[in-house]
Amino acid sequence: MTTTTVEKIGYCAHESEQGTLAFEHAKELAKRLGAQLNVFAFLHDPYKEGEKPREMEIEVPSEKELAELERKLRMSYEEAAGDFTNIGFRLCHDNGWKELHRCLCNRQFQLLVLARPTEDAWFLGKPIEEFAKGFICPTILVGPDKDTVIQANPSADMLHEDINETCGGNQDWARL
């Protein structure tokens, strides 16, 4: 059986209670695995229902605006990161699917953590469960009810024990 070594974990930023829980979960998992945590923030909302990323026109801000957006992103996670310093940040300019695929191909993550803000949440133009099931790398969803509800696509099953440990072994685990 082939296993994936997780050296980097990707987390897609989401400003919500579930986003905070997903970030904490991703951070604890990165600590446990000795991995880097990369926070991806999009210039558009990847959780917007029905919006198809490939059809979106994205106006890229000026260099000055991008620098300010990145500074704000880093500052918004500074307190939550605490003493965890193995963390990177990336502003995603292209539509979400293209950008995530590029980051995956460049090995910026081997596990993707997404907040699931509601039962019927969308991500990159699809219901979030459909996105996670079809995404090529291990993907876990955190929420919507509490941080101990984890849903994982089939390729994330190999990480079940490590993921379960990050929540003290008392989480609900469900396969998508």
Can you offer a commentary on this structure?
By secondary structure, this protein is of the alpha/beta class. The protein has five helices and nine strands; from the N terminus they run βαβαβαβββαββαβ. The protein has helices spanning 17-33, 63-81, 96-105, 128-134, 160-166, and strands at residues 8-12, 36-42, 87-92, 111-115, 122-123, 126-127, 139-142, 149-152, 172-175. The strands form two sheets. The chain has a seven-stranded mixed sheet with strand order 3-2-1-4-7-8-9, with helices on both faces. Strands 5-6 form a two-stranded antiparallel ribbon. Helix 5 links the parallel strand 8 and strand 9.
Summarize the structure in short:
This protein is of the alpha/beta class. It is built from five helices and nine strands.
Q: Indicate the overall shape.
A: globular
- N-to-C terminal Cα separation, in Å? 21 Å
Q: Major sheet: size, sense and barrel closure? A: 7 strands, mixed
Record field, number of beta strands = 9
Structural class: alpha/beta
| Mean pLDDT across all amino acids | 83
Poorly predicted parts? none
What is the beta-strand fraction? 15-25%
The helix fraction, in percent, is 25-40%
Helix count, per DSSP? Answer: 5
Compute the CA-based radius of gyration: 15 Å
Instruction: Spell the H/E element sequence.
Output: EHEHEHEEEHEEHE
Biggest sheet: strand arrangement: 3-2-1-4-7-8-9
